[in-house]
Amino acid sequence: MAELTAAERRRTKPVGARFITWVRGGGISTFLFFVPLLFTFGYFAWWPILRSLVLSLQKTNLVTEPTWVGLNNFERVLADPLLGTAVANTLLFAGLALLIGFPVPILFATFMAELRRTRQVASVMVYLPVIIPPVVSVLLWKQFYDPSANGLFNTLLGAIGVGPLPWLQDGNMAMPAIVIQATWAGFGQATIIYLAALMSIQSELYEAAEMDGARVVRRFWHITLPQMRSIMLLMLLLQVIGTMQVFTEPFVMTGGGPVNRTTTVLMLIYNYAFLQGDYGKATALSLLLAVVLTIVSAVYLRLTRSWSKS
Amino acid sequence: MQVRSPRALAIAAVAAIAGLTLAGCSTAAPEKGPTADPNAKVTITVGEMPTADQPAALKTFNDRVAQFEKKYPNITVKGEETRYDPSSFNALLVGGTAPSTLAIPFTDMQALIARGQAADITELAKESSVLSGLNPDLVKAVTKDGKKYGVVRQAYEMALMYNRALYTQAGLDPDSPPTDWEGVLKNAKTIAEKTGKTGFIIPTTSNQGGWLLAAMSYSNGSLVESVKDGKAKVSVDTAAMKKSLQFLHDLRWDANAAGANFLLNGDDIRNQYAAGTVAQTINGPIYADVVVNRGMKGPDIGIAPMPQGKDGLGTLGGGAIQWFNPKADENQLAAALKWTEFYWLDRYFDKESAVALASAAAADKKPVGAPELPLVSDKQYDTYLGWIKDSVNVDRSLYADYLGSTLKVNAEPAVKAQELYAALDPIVQAVLTDQNADIDKLLSAAQTSVQGVVDAG
Fold first, then answer.
1. Cis amide prior to B285 (ω within 30 degrees)
2. What confidence tens digit (pLDDT) does each residue in B331-364 have?
3. Which one of B20, B25, B271 would you mutate to disrupt binding with A, by most A Cβ within 10 Å of its Cβ?
4. Beta B159-163 vs B150-157: how paired, if at all?
5. CB contact, 8 Å: B205 with chain A?
6. All domains of chain B, ordered by start, with CATH?
7. CA A135 – CA A151 distance, rounded (Å)
8. Which of A62, A82, A146, A153 to mutate to test the interface with B (most CBs of B within 10 A)?
9. What does the alpha-carbon distance between residue B362 and residue B370 come to, in Å, rounded to a whole number?
10. pLDDT, tens digit (0-9, with 9 covering 90-100), for B172-199
11. Cα(B425)–Cα(B262) distance, integer angstroms
12. Separation CA B384–CA B276 (nearest Å)
């Protein structure tokens, strides 16, 4: 008969004895360290999620007694004619943000990695837009986007002979304008992260490539990008999840207009909750969004498992 | 396979928490006693306490609180500077930090009643003599199915607000404002040409575009909703609505007098009106707000009756309603009602409070005697004006037409007004931003979608 391993011996001891061993090993103090974390996450994250699950099955205004309506909230949300528009706009924002906002930090980081003495200053400058509170930055840009000939951007464009643009007033221009502002406000964060990743790439790789005659662009494409692949993939996923939940920018800049061209899913949720007082519909849509994002993340992570560095 | 799987434990834990959630999830409103006890000790919180930068008004407020507490020794009144703000009101109410009573605009009352977020004060109101002295037409705004849910404490009818200084600058006579929409368009064009400022614009976001478009529709001959036998019928696909939208279209694309910015809410418009960049708009008579908060000079403010089209139905009414917190208990509601009468309504019946409040407002350089709809009978209101005439600092002769207007004052749509306005907002934006907007198509789409929302309940 084979001897029992230490682990098997531990597992088959009676419960009481296992508990004493755990306590003797410092288990209680470990647990006490864990309790505040458990409490904070439980109270501020997990409990609200469970509660919203319950709310989504009720017709409630959180003042009077709620009534159970089962899946009626989900039906009403899916039947809302604005939902299609909101989803399309959200996807447009996410798509444009990917197109415009994803490469910008990578390029900036690559450029900054070449700097020697000025890199610190550049890091600070690049991060400044991130420090500005989001609403302040959005309101600032709303002023810049003033459609009259005296607006800041229109004055600058006027100097090179480009006519006053309507910016947020035009249905086709409004969303790209918002994406530009969002990119400006957020690219510093990603840049710093990519810069850190870049610093960790071995310089021997670049030296070897240079000796083989590779020029800047080829070095970038064949060394920099592959080495940064895992962090880029992660940032991409985080960006998608983040941009699908965009709210502040369209809410403050355009209020969802013109003609609902910048209404996003989060804005619909806000309207349901705080303008219509229908918390059931709001939580139902939030849950649907969460489920969609979870599926997207799961599929994404599965597909890219083989690509990222282990 | 592991014997005591941690995963099984985790699942059990989540199930336990879920079970507890479901068990404890029904948060009932506090039990209401059968009748209010007039002598029970009770504390109420009231909103609209003057802020620290209005020392005279704050002192008067505190004096009035002291007088009230002397009259009713069992009631303690705590003042809060809270004012109604649609973006935070719901959260305040749900979180339990809304005051016992607060002023809310007319537009939101029916929605709150429908959602059960306004306290039923029918029984309490019956016992009050002050409330029965109020204008019965206004009481309709706070009534649903025969029950009362609030007290109207300020009322107005929508007006054409114009800038007298800009009129003069453009060569127009500020004492003869236009009485129909063609006149408004003509003046807007003149002002835009002569001064470069926006001739006329209305808000287009936050449901306010829809609200004012509905008011324009009233003035052109149709209401936007009618209720018969408990069923509401929406009518936005009407000639009157088309005429109103055509007016905005012509203003923007033919006269080029609508300015350059079309994503404005009410706040933006008031700022621009006060700053003198917008010459005409429609709103309630926002005299106090633009003078006190936005730096406009009183004599520049012009208020005229709502322009009327052929077959115009009059104008839209608005104002402030004192709302009562449904989470308050019966004693608190009774106390809050007494406070409302004492602080807000007594002034029309009691010379001493009228003079005290008016002179404090004048001392704080706030407008006294700005145009409004009387809450009480005309005779009583004239008596009131007589009491406070020494403090009146508004030149009411400038607004004689508005004050003497005999236009009918219509109520807002009774069912799902906010959803109706929300559906009209994009149409206003479309007309102002797209020269080829198909008005008929937009209106019929809005008609279908709002009727659907109204029918869904």
1. no
2. 999 999 999 988 888 888 889 888 988 888 888 8
3. B25
4. unpaired
5. yes
6. 157-317+399-456 (3.40.190.10)
7. 20
8. A62
9. 12
10. 999 999 999 999 999 999 999 999 999 9
11. 11
12. 33
Pairing assessment for the beta strands B315-324 and B409-410 based on DSSP bridges: parallel
Token digits of residue A21? 């061993």
Q: Could you tell me which residues come within 8 angstroms of residue B361 by beta carbon, excluding any fewer than 6 positions away?
A: B56, B57, B367, B368, B391
The three-state secondary structure class of B227 is: strand
How far apart (Å, rounded) are the C-alpha atoms in residues A281 and A273?
8
Residue of A nearest to B450 (CA): A81
CA A133 to chain B, closest CA, distance in angstroms equals: 19
User: Considering only CA atoms, which of A132, A142, A101, A112 is closest in space to residue A235?
Assistant: A101
Report the predicted TM-score, pTM, of the whole model to 2 decimal places. 0.82
Q: In angstroms, what CA-CA distances link B307 with B170, B185, B285, B311?
A: 20, 11, 14, 12
The answer to whether the beta carbons of residues B311 and B125 sit under 8 Å apart is no
| Interface subset of A 253-272, CB within 8 angstroms of B | 254-260, 271
Judge contact between B116 and B137, C-beta under 8 A: no
SS3 category, B163: strand
Give the ipTM: 0.77
Mean pLDDT of B379-387: 90
Place of tokens 């490539």: A209
CA–CA distance, A234 with A236 (Å, rounded to integer): 5
d(CA A187, CA A182): 8
**Long-range contacts for B386-389 (Cβ within 8 Å, ≥24 apart)?**
B387/B351, B387/B354, B387/B355, B387/B358, B388/B354, B388/B355, B388/B358
Write the burial class of residue B38 (CB in 10 Å: 0-12 exposed, 13-18 middle, 19+ buried): middle
Nearest Cα to B259, choosing from B436, B432, B431, B425?
A: B432
Q: Hey, CA dihedral for A100, A104, A107, A111, is it positive or negative?
A: positive
Position B40, amino acid: A
Which residue ranges form the domains of chain A, and what is each CATH number?
Answer: 6-39 (no CATH), 72-303 (1.10.3720.10)
User: Strand locations in chain A, DSSP E?
Assistant: 58-59, 67-68
The rounded distance, in Å, linking the Cα atoms of A194 and A201 is: 11
In order of A218, B96, B329, the CA distances from B30 in angstroms are 71, 11, 7
- Name the DSSP letter for residue B350: -
Interchain proximity B426–A63, CB inside 8 Å: no
**How far apart are the C-alpha atoms of B302 and B300, rounded to whole Å?**
6
